[in-house]
Design brief:
The protein has 158 residues and is an all-alpha fold. The protein is 45% helix and 3% strand. It is built from 6 helices and 2 strands. Strands 1-2 form a two-stranded parallel ribbon. It is globular. The N and C termini lie far apart (37 Å). The relative contact order is 0.15.
C-alpha cells in the first residue's frame, strides 16, 4: 500500500519511494526526499487532487499515479542536509560523518544500527573496525543517493 502524506508535492515522489527498499537506507532516503518535497511546497498549499487524504477526489481509492515515462526531478541532497544542519542545535558534520548524517535525520546512529545499514548495503569489510566501516558507509550512502535521484556534490562521491 502506498502511503500518501499531505505535504507530498508530486505523485512521482510517492511512486519513487514506493519502489525503494524500506530498510535502513530506504528510511534515510525517504527522510531526505520527503524533506525536499516539503521545502518545495508552500505550507498553505493544498495537496494535488488525489493526494494527501486517501479517497480524495477519487470516490474512495487514491489513484494518483505518475505518467508513463515521467522522471523524478533530482533532489539536492546537500541543500536538504545543510538546511537541516542549520536548524539543528548540535554541530553535525554530515559531509564527513555517517553518524552525524543519521543524527541529523533523526535516525538511530548506534553501532548496531550502522552495522544493520552496512549489512543492507553489502559491506564486506570487518564490522568490528567501526572507523573503516563508517567511512565506507558514508561514501556508499552518498553513491546510492546519487544513483537514486539525489544530486550529491562530486567531492562526496570520490
Amino acid at each position: 500500500m502506498l502511503l500518501r502524506y499531505p505535504y507530498d508535492s508530486s505523485p512521482l515522489i510517492n511512486e519513487f519511494i514506493r519502489r525503494i527498499t524500506m530498510g535502513m537506507f530506504g528510511n534515510l532516503m525517504q527522510k531526505i526526499f520527503r524533506t525536499s518535497a516539503k521545502a518545495e511546497r508552500p505550507h498553505d498549499a493544498a495537496p494535488p487532487p488525489g493526494m494527501g487524504v486517501p479517497g480524495a477526489s477519487t470516490g474512495g481509492a487514491a489513484t494518483a499515479t505518475a505518467p508513463a515515462g515521467a522522471a523524478i526531478s533530482e533532489v539536492d541532497v546537500a541543500a536538504v542536509l545543510d538546511k537541516l544542519a542549520s536548524e539543528n542545535s548540535q554541530k553535525l558534520d554530515w559531509k564527513h560523518s555517517i553518524v552525524d548524517m543519521m543524527k541529523l535525520l533523526d535516525m538511530d546512529s548506534s553501532l548496531s544500527a550502522r552495522k544493520e545499514l552496512a549489512t543492507e548495503l553489502n559491506y564486506t569489510g570487518d564490522m568490528n573496525d567501526s572507523a573503516k566501516m563508517n567511512m565506507w558507509l558514508h561514501k556508499e550512502v552518498m553513491k546510492k543517493l546519487a544513483e537514486n535521484g539525489g544530486k550529491v556534490p562530486a567531492d562526496l562521491l570520490d
